[in-house]
Amino acid sequence: MRLLAIMLCLMLASYAGPANAQSRLPDAQWANEQLPDPAQEAEARELMESLRCLVCQGQSIADSDADMAQDMRALVRRRIAAGEEPEAIRQWLVDRYGRWVTYEPPFDAVTWPLWLLPLLLLGTGLWLARGRFRKNRGDR
Q1: How far apart are CA 58 and CA 78, in angstroms?
Q2: What span, in angstroms and rounded, lies between the C-alpha atoms of 62 and 125?
Q3: How far apart are CA 86 and CA 34, in angstroms?
Q4: 65 Cα distance to chain centroid
Q5: Angle, helices 38-49/86-97, rounded to nearest 10 degrees
Q6: Contact between 22 and 62 (Cβ < 8 Å)
Q7: What pTM does this model have?
Q8: Helical (H) or strand (E) element with 105
Q9: Which three-class secondary structure state does DSSP give residue 36?
Q10: Mean pLDDT, consecutive 10-residue segments, the chain of 140 residues?
């Protein structure tokens, strides 16, 4: 009987975990509000759409509902409102979180395979197809 009671308590405790994981803090200012200046909001929105959510990984911070993405949106909007350039904000985020935070990796010694490998594979495929078509044309 005691074992059953312990198992029941453990089972109930395991269901409470996800509910307790939700943040009880209020959203950061500007996380879900637009800036009053439409030009600044457009700059912020464009930058937010080019930054990857560190939690979701497949969404931009503009589209994500994760707490981290909300904090990053608030940071971007605060810095844009303060007059900072979007490229400086992007560079600060890249310095802090790494190149992975941006959807537009630069061409350098580390990322060259991302840029050149698709072209190499396409060229190889075209070369193989050309040889295959030539072989078929010679059989006629």
Answers
A1: 24
A2: 37
A3: 16
A4: 12
A5: 30
A6: no
A7: 0.62
A8: none
A9: coil
A10: 78 61 58 84 93 87 88 92 94 90 80 86 92 70
